[in-house]
């Protein structure tokens, strides 16, 4: 890693930790801090962080962070959890996700002028959500539990659901060397590895002569993640779907391991995400925002936030008894999260004809989303905490 990048991350991380308690009561968020720091330290401003989108560190860091995100997301949504309270998250996923994708694609075609295939690819990139960028909503007990559960379960699953769509559309656009059957094999093999490895390790752990000490139990889960990562890389299985499947398997078979791993896993995931957001911010330059993206692109990015998800969730929640305030909050808090960052980078490095334009539009929507959602979560959380229901 570039020493300047490492030092920048360490300094910004220290600053973020030291102001985190005060920032949690304001419109400032850690994600915004790292995004702005990356922007200011990047080549377009101070030139401290000198990374390009094609640099190996960008893709490697992003892939590791997304693997960790999907692994921990999967552990939030074991089969038992889904059965216990599926109605609202199910609507958001089964109806809301594809509707968000379609509405975003329509906007990309008619507003940004993209061809239909690339429009649907952009819609798939921007359809997952990440409430980590709206942590005051999902992390505050004052906010109604029904809403927190809805956003947590939805975000925990939609990254994994959107990924196969991104991969298939990217292959159709000529962005991967894998053909249809090979791509299917990679996806299925990733799921098989993600299910088989945890089952095998957890079966070994149950043997009477094999037992981890209490304080080392989180490392059992870490070892499962590392095994899935390395096996997927060695076999060319899809490591992201492997990560998600492994997390779901652990949460379903041994939920107590999920609880042991939770704090450690969240910290590791947060570190990787923040490092990737810092690098992502360094890729955003003033010329990127104000010269390379036309007015139609800005209009698309705004509409993707204020129209696509709200319209999709409005249709999805028809006939439910979710209170109006919670319904509006769920419609608004669909941040374009970290998965979208990595999916956008995958498109950029795929070499398809419109890769640069797609990445520019995705990056602008993500930046606007981080700024808008991370700046309004505290205010709306306070409002929800004083609203009955």
UniProtKB/TrEMBL annotation:
<protein>
    <submittedName>
        <fullName>Cation:proton antiporter</fullName>
    </submittedName>
</protein>
<feature type="transmembrane region" description="Helical">
    <location>
        <begin position="6"/>
        <end position="24"/>
    </location>
</feature>
<dbReference type="InterPro" id="IPR006153">
    <property type="entry name" value="Cation/H_exchanger_TM"/>
</dbReference>
<dbReference type="InterPro" id="IPR038770">
    <property type="entry name" value="Na+/solute_symporter_sf"/>
</dbReference>
<dbReference type="Pfam" id="PF00999">
    <property type="entry name" value="Na_H_Exchanger"/>
</dbReference>
<feature type="transmembrane region" description="Helical">
    <location>
        <begin position="161"/>
        <end position="180"/>
    </location>
</feature>
<keyword id="KW-0050">Antiport</keyword>
<feature type="transmembrane region" description="Helical">
    <location>
        <begin position="295"/>
        <end position="318"/>
    </location>
</feature>
<keyword id="KW-0813">Transport</keyword>
<feature type="transmembrane region" description="Helical">
    <location>
        <begin position="358"/>
        <end position="380"/>
    </location>
</feature>
<keyword id="KW-1133">Transmembrane helix</keyword>
<keyword id="KW-0812">Transmembrane</keyword>
<feature type="transmembrane region" description="Helical">
    <location>
        <begin position="31"/>
        <end position="51"/>
    </location>
</feature>
<feature type="transmembrane region" description="Helical">
    <location>
        <begin position="187"/>
        <end position="204"/>
    </location>
</feature>
<feature type="transmembrane region" description="Helical">
    <location>
        <begin position="224"/>
        <end position="250"/>
    </location>
</feature>
<feature type="transmembrane region" description="Helical">
    <location>
        <begin position="57"/>
        <end position="79"/>
    </location>
</feature>
<keyword id="KW-0406">Ion transport</keyword>
<keyword id="KW-0472">Membrane</keyword>
<feature type="domain" description="Cation/H+ exchanger transmembrane">
    <location>
        <begin position="11"/>
        <end position="375"/>
    </location>
</feature>
<keyword id="KW-1003">Cell membrane</keyword>
<feature type="transmembrane region" description="Helical">
    <location>
        <begin position="330"/>
        <end position="352"/>
    </location>
</feature>
<feature type="transmembrane region" description="Helical">
    <location>
        <begin position="271"/>
        <end position="289"/>
    </location>
</feature>
<feature type="transmembrane region" description="Helical">
    <location>
        <begin position="91"/>
        <end position="112"/>
    </location>
</feature>
